Amino acid sequence: MKFILISCFVLFSFVVLPSFGQEEECKVLMLQIAEKYDGKCKKGFAHGRGVAEGIDKYEGSFKYGLPYGRGEYTWSTGERYDGKWEDGKKEGVGVFYYFKDGEPVIKEGMWIDDLYAGPVPEKPKVITSTGIERYNFQRQSDGNRVQVTTYINGHNNIDLKDLTFFGSSGGEFRSGGTMGYESIVFPFRCRITYFSWNKAHTVRNFTRFEFEISEPGKWQVILHNN
Fold first, then answer.
1. What is the pTM (predicted TM-score) of this model?
2. Domain residue extents for the chain
């Protein structure tokens, strides 16, 4: 009986125990870095922070087997990219280090669908702000249009006196407390002045707001009077 128990334990050790030491298989879907992976997994794929190696090497964030998020990729030829990724492609802000005629070169900017799209656009710049409690710039989509909307006490501010509105290019449009320019050329500079009631509706205050937008797109500019 004792011999039988010992035999069963030995058999259990060889058959069952090794299964506890097995690591979850994590697939990397880019052939150049699929030889070795060390990092987080999800449903059998590299997912989260990890390091993948093969001909090339990648260290950073993964999503279901592909570089996604922030990461650094180093090619076997010495080139290196450090920045944002999406579905295994360079996408967003990043820096590419490479060699040209034997000299190191740095290319920094925006990447779209794995291709360099140019320098990172400047953020909207406020030149003058008088009588404004707060403001907000929202890029809604691609295009060539800028719309400005004014608010007071959380409501559209349509009672504007002595309104002047000037844009550096495009065709102007107005409707109540909303105004703007379309078919514009960037960089676009705009100046708006008017007198607006204060929040207590007891006196009119002078408002002047001047700004410049360099990145093309359809923009919404929201102004809250104080």
1. 0.60
2. 24-118, 125-225
